[in-house]
Amino acid sequence: MATRKLFLLPGDGIGPESMAEVRKIITYLNEEKGLGFETDEGLVGGSAYDAHGQAISEGDMEKALAADAVLFGAVGGPKWDSVPYEVRPEAGLLRLRKDLALFANLRPAICYPALADASSLRPEVVEGLDILIVRELTGGVYFGEPKEIIDLGNGQKRGIDTQVYETYEIERIAGVAFELARTRGNKVTSMEKRNVMKSGVLWNEVVTATHKAQYADVQLEHMLADAGGMQLVRWPKQFDVIVTDNLFGDMLSDVAAMLTGSLGMLPSASLGAPDATTGKRKALYEPVHGSAPDIAGQGIANPIAMIASFAMCLRYSFNLIEEADRLEAAIAAVLDDGIRTGDIWSEGSKKVGTVEMGDAILAKFKALSA
Ligand code: IPM
Ligand code: MG
């Protein structure tokens, strides 16, 4: 039987509570379905800093590199606000993305029918929403050099970040977006700021050329990223797949997430290139939401984004499509039953905590898998 190696990095804040609910699902899949997941666990973010003075230890980096997939919770919190920049909690996540070369970040924004009312937009604007943001994750201003603060010696300083993209980086992320569009609504909207940024001009050119050369069957549209943000809140259902750079993708995916009612709902997958011999991609799965230190440890966090991230892991890393479909269906069914954590609660529905939500999803998942 194949062993499936998972490396769990619960992290800080609500990360560990959410991960605990995924662990129950893994245990069930091993004990009842014989899927042979082997799990190991490490520290990342503030918890790693407290233990090792680093945002992730070398040992845990090695384990992440050796795993079939990494499940990541969340990092950060006020406790670590003043640690040195190089070892701030987020540095652990950025190092994982960079060293595992996870250039493609898939962020679906799906509005569960039962939650159309939880959105700040009118239900008819978000009902049935199903868009996929494909965010470039290892380039752009997040990693460009120089990245520094220079003392100008006259009482002034200069802060510099560098936005930089090369052709191959744009080609490969565009390729991922076009391939995925073919499995969905067959439309890609590319977003950049070619009206002010040279990297945006190149982005636009390369996406257009990639489309022409290999994906002319897919509908392609270009939008300036600011207008794209506006269109996302005006009429989000016009979009199918959105492809954009690292920084715009960070911002636009938070906007898209909130359309669906709660940041607590959305999963993400970060994928590398297929290995030349095995065809396997390195992968990390994480909720789009952060560590929510304000509610950490109270047992009220919404574990759905973490559980849905595991569903993406089943789908993309292990090709367990039926199991992934069933886990996603279990989430939708629990929401249909009116079971809600506080962030998505509304009058008339049943308010539950993290553990009860996890248990309810597991029970539905078991029923659907019977
Ligand atoms: C995200 C987060 C991260 C990012 C932070 C935690 C570094 O906001 O995954 O969207 O900016 O990429
Ligand atoms: Mg973000």
UniProtKB/TrEMBL annotation:
**What biological process terms from GO does the record include?**
L-leucine biosynthetic process
Subcellular locations according to the entry: Cytoplasm
Annotated metabolic or biological route of this protein? Amino-acid biosynthesis; L-leucine biosynthesis; L-leucine from 3-methyl-2-oxobutanoate: step 3/4
Q: What EC number(s) are associated with this protein in UniProt? A: 1.1.1.85
MF-aspect GO terms: 3-isopropylmalate dehydrogenase activity; magnesium ion binding; NAD binding
Q: Which cofactor does it need?
A: Mn(2+); Mg(2+)
Q: Which residues bind Mg(2+)?
A: D226, D250, D254
Q: What class of enzyme is it?
A: oxidoreductase
What region holds the Isopropylmalate dehydrogenase-like domain?
Answer: 5-361
> In its keyword annotation, does this UniProt entry include Zinc?
no
GO (cellular component) term, any one: cytosol
Quaternary structure and interacting proteins, as annotated: Homodimer.
Give a short account of what the protein does: Catalyzes the oxidation of 3-carboxy-2-hydroxy-4-methylpentanoate (3-isopropylmalate) to 3-carboxy-4-methyl-2-oxopentanoate. The product decarboxylates to 4-methyl-2 oxopentanoate.
Q: What is this protein called?
A: 3-isopropylmalate dehydrogenase
Q: Which organism is it from?
A: Pseudochrobactrum asaccharolyticum
